[in-house]
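Order emerges. One example.
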Amino acid sequence: MARRRSKPSLYISVDIEADGPIPGPYSLLSLGAAVAGVQDADGFTAIDPEQHTFYRELRPISEEFVPEALAVSGLDRERLSREGVEPAVAMAEFTDWVREVSAGAQPVMCGYPAPYDWTFLYWYLIRFTGSSPFGHSGCMDMKTLYATKAGVPLRAVAKGTMPRHLLSGRRHTHHALDDAIEQADLFARLMAWTGPS
């Protein structure tokens, strides 16, 4: 049987900051992304995550917010209401950036953990542009990747349980771009890791 040829996967680490648990009633306030690496038939190659990045702060789409969620990001909703990028513009710019950096490859969003960030990202892309450059399922969760390689239950995974050599030396600041870059380091190390010795 002939082996099916497929495009390489370009992994893009994404982090978002939002003011609540779900999109729609609550708003995506900032979006950061960094190219983490590419995987083809020869394996995975890490890319310096500071080389290709994207960052936008968005205008809120509703008046509702959860104060505790907003406090995590440190973002000012009043300032974003005046100065934030319109969501339709931000999502179109993000889509253009993804298509540019992934030319010749299939883009895959990766996150730690991915489900929360993916929920907001995908909803905003569909709501404001009508499509997603990642398709409906082009998403990889780093917690699941680690759990699979480590042979541990998913619910037992936290960064504090991982071997230190897998973790980035960068700080987790809750600034979406900083965190996307930090998580790109983790992703590259997880892809190279063969699991516990």
